[in-house]
Amino acid sequence: MRSYSFCMLTAAAALLVPCHALSCPGLPELSNIPGLGGLLRLLSKNSDCLPISPDTEFSDVLENFRQRLSRLEGALTLKGKIAKAGEKIIASNGKKADFSSALESCEKTGGTLATPMNKEENRAILGIVEQYNSYAYLGIKENETSGQFEYMNGTPLNYTNWYQYEPNGKGTEKCVEMYTNGNWNDRKCNLYRLTICEF
Ligand SMILES: *[C@@H]1O[C@H](CO)[C@@H](O)[C@H](O)[C@H]1NC(C)=O
Ligand SMILES: *[C@@H]1O[C@H](CO)[C@@H](O)[C@H](O)[C@H]1NC(C)=O
Ligand SMILES: [Ca+2]
């Protein structure tokens, strides 16, 4: 059972990501929120997300909605509940889970496990790790055949922040956790770690 605030975060995040991402799997659930379904459908038809419709009333509504989301985002950021890094929004449901359950709960809400691809994103994820004072799994896995760590879609890493002498698991530690200092450690996948998603 996902919390209401986590769903709202997902809804907010969905409106802040580019339109092409609006067809992601978690979104049908959002259509059940009164008023939001229609708005999302309208947004996704509009390739550049701008209210170019001559219907000014609708663009007023949209503008108002965007401003409210922006304030909501500000409030949540201030409380350390979400973090922003470029286009990414990083958020946690505060639950600890093994790697596959954590990944699943992120994907169910239209995101994926937080995957730091540069210093700024690593810093944003670390902010959530610090907030909950708990290690978290990252969206990075060891390739079964090559033994190299890679993103969930199989592409090679272009940024790493390993702790000294890591990774050291050599095939026995196929997942990656973030320490409370932001460094990474390869680790077994069946431990309980904070779920942090990106949207
Ligand atoms: C790695 O690639 C991603 C996506 O292309 C990009 O957002 C990120 O900034 C890159 N990281 C570095 C350290 O160049
Ligand atoms: C593992 O790496 C090999 C070669 O680098 C690649 O062909 C293969 O698709 C990767 N496997 C997975 C599961 O990503
Ligand atoms: Ca290790």
UniProtKB/TrEMBL annotation:
It is found in: Secreted. Residues 99-198 form the C-type lectin domain. PROSITE patterns: C_TYPE_LECTIN_1, C_TYPE_LECTIN_2. GO terms for molecular function: carbohydrate binding; growth factor activity. The keyword DNA damage does not apply. Residues 1-21 form the signal peptide. It holds the Pfam family Lectin_C. Keywords: Calcium, Collagen, Disulfide bond, Glycoprotein, Lectin, Secreted, Signal. Its main location: secreted. This is C-type lectin domain-containing protein. It comes from Anas platyrhynchos platyrhynchos.
